[in-house]
Design brief:
458 residues; mainly alpha; two-stranded antiparallel ribbon; 14 helices; odorant binding; olfactory receptor activity; transducer; olfaction; receptor
């Protein structure tokens, strides 16, 4: 056990342990991808069973809304296929793909992998580090959580604004049309019937926004939070010798000498992803030394370095859980985004000729949201990869030359293991990174060119 006292962090930088996924879990609840109530053990009251019943009803209602709209679009494509109206058929195919993916995400999160989802959230929430080890500098999870909330809220709001525009189109036209143009086996313009159909389509569009933003947004939140854990690891590795000195009860002269040797690394820019490094004065460090410390440097270093290794193993385990959860669906997601991007771009180019400005805005929003979703999947996977190869750099920022003989074997062992890069993949086939983002866009617009040539010949 460490004999170092817990540092008193300034109230402005204090970061207490909390649920890191509260917002994205609420989005999952809206989409019916997560239970409505908190899962509690012990005695269950009548309120618990009532909430469980409401949860089941809400889930089944969401399934009904998505499936019935999906079936209506399939029937629409079948009925109007012989007309040869490529723009209308492509528009129907877009909605068919969107609702199929929405339904698949609901099933995957709620029924296929609910245990793995729960394990992943609980594993990160229970074991994440709130701040780096004591040393001349420190970082906390405050910056990563702030960026996580900013990114996820921006993405979710953009998705819901896009659906609101779709719902606003019939109101703008004032012709009792529907947000989603598809075939119905009855006259939906009749009083009460129109309001009911409009309500079901509105619910369906809200479910699309919630399902898309929850599935991709959770991936984004995981990437940012684990990057925050990497920041804490980098700072702890950089200050591992300072932590060791505190463990062994070093005096002020020894701390001052070590601080002077480490000052060179403190001037380096872009050491962290989302954290702001804070300084700890020598007086504050001296106050952290507990009574009865062992003067053996090697024992103190093993203890301090061991905590860094424990944090590194925790991050890798979390990444493996994330990879196991997401790699099956991202393989299909790459294909779905490529297909959807091509179809939306085609419909947009066709709509510029005759349709209204409002419809062009809505389709433009759809295209931007598809690109945005693909970007956050690939970019934050790339962030994870870049951090996985930087652990060795963080370790070299410590003044290792002062104790080369004692720490050489531990440093070399860590450096060899840190060279193992971690890549998030799509079905263990494609590596998710910025190059994949660029390649998918290129493929999508190649298909768009082919589709435009087919339309020109028709």
């Amino acid at each position: 056990m460490s004999g170092i006292k817990q540092p008193e962090v300034d109230s402005a930088e204090q970061f207490s342990r909390r649920d890191l996924f509260s917002f994205v879990r609420n989005v999952m609840r809206v989409a019916g991808m997560h239970p409505l109530g908190a899962e509690t053990g012990g005695t269950k009251s009548c309120l618990h069973y009532l909430l469980g019943l409401c949860d089941v009803i809400y889930e089944l209602f969401n399934y009904f809304v998505c499936v019935h709209i999906e079936c209506l679009y399939i029937c629409t494509i079948y009925i109007y296929y012989s007309t040869g109206d490529l723009e209308f058929l492509v528009n129907c195919l877009i909605q068919t793909v969107i609702y199929l993916w929405t339904f698949a995400m609901k099933l995957y999160f709620r029924r296929i992998q609910p245990k793995l989802l729960k394990q992943l959230i609980e594993f990160i929430n229970l074991k994440y580090c709130t701040r780096s080890a004591p040393g001349f500098t420190y970082v906390t999870m405050k910056g990563a959580l702030r960026q996580s909330n900013l990114w996820i809220k921006t993405y979710v709001y953009c998705c819901f604004i896009g659906t609101i525009f779709w719902l606003a189109l019939p109101l703008a036209y004032g012709d009792r049309s529907l947000p989603l143009a598809c075939w119905y086996p009855f006259d939906y313009t009749q009083p009460f019937v129109y309001e009911l159909v409009f309500f079901l389509q509105a619910v369906g569009q809200i479910q699309v926004a919630a399902a898309f933003s929850a599935s991709s947004g959770f991936h984004m939140v995981l990437g940012i939070l684990l990057a925050g854990q990497y920041d804490i690891l980098f700072c702890s590795l950089k200050n591992v010798l300072a932590t060791s000195y505190l463990e062994m009860g070093a005096n002020m002269a020894e701390l001052r000498q070590l601080q002077a040797a480490q000052a060179v690394a403190d001037a380096e820019l872009n050491q962290y992803n989302y954290s702001q490094e804070q300084q700890t004065t020598l007086t504050e460090l001296a106050a952290l030394i507990g009574p009865g410390e062992n003067r053996n440097f090697q024992i103190a270093f093993k203890s301090a370095f061991g905590r860094c290794l424990h944090l590194h193993r925790y991050i890798i385990k979390a990444l493996y859980k994330m990879e196991r959860f997401y790699n099956p669906i991202w393989l299909f997601k790459i294909g779905e985004v490529t297909f959807l991007m091509c179809l939306v771009a085609f419909t947009y180019t066709k709509s510029t000729n005759a349709n209204s400005f409002m419809r062009m805005v809505v389709l433009g929003q759809y295209l931007l949201l598809v690109l945005y979703e693909l970007f956050i999947i690939c970019y934050f996977a790339d962030v994870v990869y870049q951090n996985s190869v930087r652990c060795g750099e963080a370790l070299w920022r410590s003044p290792w030359q002062l104790h080369m003989r004692e720490i050489r074997s531990d440093y070399m062992f860590f450096m060899l293991n840190a060279r193992r890069q971690f890549r998030l993949t799509a079905g263990k086939i494609y590596n998710l990174n910025v190059d994949r983002f660029r390649g998918t866009i290129t493929t999508a617009f190649s298909f768009l060119t082919l589709l435009q040539k087919m339309d020109a010949r028709a």
